[in-house]
Structures are given as C-alpha cells and as structure tokens.
Amino acid sequence: MQPFITKKPEMHLVGMSFYGDPFSTHGGWDGENEIGRVWARFMKYMGEKESELRTIIYPDALYEVHIYNEETIQKGIFEIFVGARLESIKNIPIELLIKTLPASEYARFTFEGDDISSDWYLSIDKWIAEAGYQRAHSFSFQFYDERFKGMDRISESILDVYMPVKLAE
Amino acid sequence: MNAKITAIYSAIEFIEKHLKDEISVGDIAASAGYSLYHFIRVFNQTVQHSPYDYLIRRRLSEAALELRASDRRIIDISMDYCFQNHETFSRAFKRMFAVQPSQWRSKKNVQSWLLLPRLSMEYLRHINKKDFLYPKPVAISGDNYVRFVHGGTEVTLHLTLNYIYHSWFPQSEIVLAYAIDAKHFEVDGNLSKMVALIPILR
After folding, report:
1. I want to staple A149 with a disulfide (CB 3.0 to 4.6 A). Which of A7, A153, B104, B146 is the partner?
2. What does the pLDDT look like over B118-140, one tens digit per residue?
3. Domain count, chain A
C-alpha cells in the first residue's frame, strides 16, 4: 500500500456534522449508524435545495471528515462532518456548517472494493510510522467522487483517504 | 465472523481485567488489534453497545453489586471503579438504575435486570447469528407493540432474554407495558421460532 504524497491549499467545505460515537446503533430506528444518518440528512437536504445550492458548492465530489478531539481516544467520540467543497461563502443557509481544512501535506491512500470496509486506519498508521512521518493535524478525510458507486456496490468502488502528515520530529 | 467475535471477546476480557484501572477506549482497541475507529464500528455491531457505554455499564454494575454486598462507603466504591467524584458516580448511577446509589443500597427490592452482566462468548455468538432478530416496534390496528423473536429452541431462550433485559431494554427509550419473560414467547408456525408481542406504554 503505497500512498501518494501531495500538498493541498486551504480548503473550505460546507455540510453537516455529528458528534458522538459514530457507530452507535441506538441513535434511532432508521439508518444503521450515526454516519449513515448524517449522510442521509445531508443528501436529503441537498436534494431538496438543489437549485439554491448550485451557486454555493462544487457538486462533483463529497467529503467525509473525521475530526479528533480529546474525547476520541478516551471515549471513542468523533466529530464526523460530511459536505462538499464551497464555491462562495455567501448565502450559506442556517442548516449548513462551514469547515476550513488548513493547507497541509497529505498522504493519499486509494482503496478499492472490499478494502474500503477494511481497517484502513490501522494500515495507514502503520505506513505513517514506518515511513518516518506522523499525523500533522487532528483530522483526516475521505474523498467520494464518481469512482465511488455507493455502499451497495462497494466491490466496484474506489475511495481516497487523505491523512495530513508531516515528517516525524 | 468468528475472527471478529474472537477479537471482540478478547476486548471484553481486557475490559473485565481493567474495570478498576484507568483505561481508554484507545487501549481497548489496541488490545483487540484494531484501529480505534474500526474497533468502535466492530464493537458496536457485535455487542450492541458502544465500547465506552459497555465499560461504564460494567463498572456501574459491579459497583451496584458491591453496594448491596458490603458496608463500604459509597465514595470508596466509586473511586475503585475510576469515577472521579461522588457527583459523577451518582449521576451515571442514576442514569443506569433510576435511583441514587444510597437508595439502591437501602431498598428491599432492586431492579436487578438493569445490571449488565459480563458478556460470555456463547452470548456474543448467539446475538451475532445470521437469523438473530433485533426487537422491532410494530403497530397493530393502532396499538403499539415491540415484537421480540427468538430463533431457536428453549435451550437458548435465556440468551435472547439476556439481550432484551440487560442490553436492549436499558438502552431504549421504550417503556414496555409489563416486563417480559420466557412465558410470553409463543411458538410461531414452525418449532424453531418463538415470538413475543409486548404492548408499549411510551
């Protein structure tokens, strides 16, 4: 598993987020877990407001950002943000949040098929340690574009995971 | 699936060994050989509790048993199980058992089904069988029920009941009209399926 090291400028995303145990099965009866629920909430909103959002976002790709905080290691609590790249900061509806990802060097890992649902965090952290890098920021993101065919077609799908990295001190 | 259950069971053993030690969910994930993120996903799917919820419920359950079995001061018991102070302990305790620790200690009868027992490998295998069905709210001619299905014979019915009592029920917002037990399960069609339909108050 060889990642591609790439630099990215600061980037603004607009979307919705969830804070808690992302895989809690007890958040409600609809949707399998909280990540599924926040995606469903965002996609429904996008569908309903398509014409208004057209001037605000780049619709070509979607992002799922995992944001770590002091409760992450302790309690298994993450912030999960899903959204799209922002074209203009004007006219953002109240339902949506903006996240600014800082300029950073990233290691981009590409996963195909069943590897998408594997424990890729483990392989990424292993690679980072062995390559003499370390995580540079308290987040990472997944990049969903036309190569991702949907959760029901994982075997035909491709997903990029971006991990901010810097050389180990 | 078996490898998953084995890994999760090793995490449960790790938790049991460290109920009285300061451990993080990150430590538990490492003990199972998973990344934190993947571990949380697999643990939730396999145990039907989040790892942190399971850890706290197990600590509270052991503390609750000790409250009734000994005369030790409440604060000492709570400190043993890594609760930082009396207030944190009482709040968590009340959330799980609906009474204060002192009331739990002095009451004649307590709702012991709210205790979460240490989960066994047999139990994990049972609730992870392909045909294991989670309780489902259903509406029948305007009335609301929860439908419980036990796939299997009476020999393993206690495992399904354990799940309903100690795991599903305490985590749900639902209040059943009456407590459920083995006698509510009726054989449904073929002999390998038993069903209970219990009315909901709210």
Report:
1. A153
2. 999 999 999 998 888 888 888 88
3. 1
Q: Does domain B2-113 have CATH number 1.10.10.60?
A: yes
> Predicted confidence band at A31 (pLDDT cuts at 50, 70, 90)?
low
Nearest C-alpha neighbor of A130 from the set A140, A122, A139, A118:
A122
Interface predicted TM-score (ipTM) of this complex, two decimals: 0.90
Nearest to A74 among B25, B50, B53 (CB): B25
Interface of B with A in 26-65 (CB under 8 A): 26, 29, 34-41, 43-45, 48, 50-53
C-beta pairs of A23-28 under 8 Å, 24+ apart in sequence? A23/B40, A23/B41, A23/B43, A23/B44, A23/B45, A23/B50, A24/B44, A24/B50, A24/B53, A25/B44, A25/B45, A25/B48, A26/B48, A26/B171, A26/B172
Residue in B39, B50, B88, B172 to test binding to A, most A beta-carbons within 10 Å: B50
